[in-house]
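User: I would dearly like some help making sense of a protein record. I have put the entry right below:
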Amino acid sequence: MIMTRQLQKHYGRVQALDGLEIEVPDGAIYGFIGQNGAGKTTTLRILAGLLVPDGGSAEVAGYDVVCNPRAVRNILGYMPDFFGVYDDLRVGEYLLFYAAAHGIRRQAAQKLRDDLLELVELADKRDEFVDSLSRGMQQRLCLARALVHDPQVLLLDEPASGLDPVARVEMREILKELRRLGKTILISSHILSELADLCTHIGMIADGRLVRQGPLLQMVEASQLQKIMLRCHGDAAPAVKVLECWPGVTALQTVNDRIELQLAGGAQEAAALLKELVLAGAAVAHYSIQEHTLEDAFMQLARG
């Protein structure tokens, strides 16, 4: 549905995108993550037709964003990280204005307005002024604006930025509903726990280049960094001696009666370590492995 090939973008001497290649499958919620300045917003603005790339290509649903921008805009909804609203308009008037901009006739626009406000749970705010809404409500209204022309694809740049926990949950549930309606969503966010609960696919970007991408579960498992906690019955010294010499063990620490560590490798490596602990005479009473998280995978990326 979305594809970039060798995408390039410069701002003076700064290279924002350096041969970026991403691929977002049809019907996916694709989480686009990276540190500040990695190139996420630049990528979304190119896909939305707001920036022209310096090289490479970008396509949305088979349409080139440079050669066929009108076709792309017809099938794409964009919600930027910073948005403006018309303070002197009421919520319903705001959506009717954008419906008119897309050439939707009055009667159809009124039904569309009511349907969208119901979707984003703002039906009871239809006659209130936009500037009276909370930030979370304004975010949901801007999402409704991006949906006015019923786009196939949504580009969302930090949609949960600045929202309180309740508003983030509401936004997440709305995005899940949009996926059930058949939308393809590319979402940039720093709130990794939200992406882990929401996304089907993940792409990690660093210095304008794609580092990893794939299905969420595959990406998390690929981190190959396990958090292990164990307890010994009696003297823990034999266990500590093994752990201090074992390749791949990092962040080793003893907390009260338990030992915590990180271990590089998969399940086979964890099993081999447990076997060695027992052979060394450690009376292991408890040995547990925590599940991989998206934060683990991202921190490995951030550490280079």
Remarks:
- Residues 63 and 240 are 59 Å apart (CA to CA).
- The first helix runs from residue 40 to 47.
